[in-house]
Specification:
Layout (H helix, E strand, L loop, with lengths): L1 H7 L2 H12 L2 E2 H5 L6 H13 L3 E6 L2 E6 L1 H15 L3 H4 L11
Length: 101
């Protein structure tokens, strides 16, 4: 989880994630959107990959990046648990799918 929050702490990396929300993209296409050196962009992509926020798939000579949606769902669940969101339903209130006593 620490790697995810570290990755999300940079505005360029958040911008990359926003781009990938709509479609998968090559590094070259991502680079067109950000005024940074190729080595800097590569570093950002590596941080996002290490946090499992994106997936890199080789397509011939091109590497195509896409979002790893499962990590976002897991992270959201962890944050909600940390903040106690939804805890009131678990404490004293029956779930909608469980019959009340």
């Amino acid at each position: 989880m620490d790697k995810v929050f570290k990755a999300l702490g940079d505005p360029t990396r958040r911008g990359i994630l926003r781009l990938l929300r709509s479609e998968e993209m090559s590094a070259g296409r991502i680079a067109q959107e950000f005024p940074v050196a190729k080595s800097t962009l590569s570093g950002h992509l590596n941080v996002l990959k290490e946090a499992n926020l994106i997936v890199a798939e080789r397509n011939g000579t091109t590497i195509v990046y896409s979002l790893n949606v499962g990590v976002y769902e897991e992270m959201l669940g962890s944050v909600m648990e940390l903040l106690g969101v939804g805890a009131e339903e678990k404490e004293g209130k029956p779930d909608a799918y469980q019959p009340a006593d």
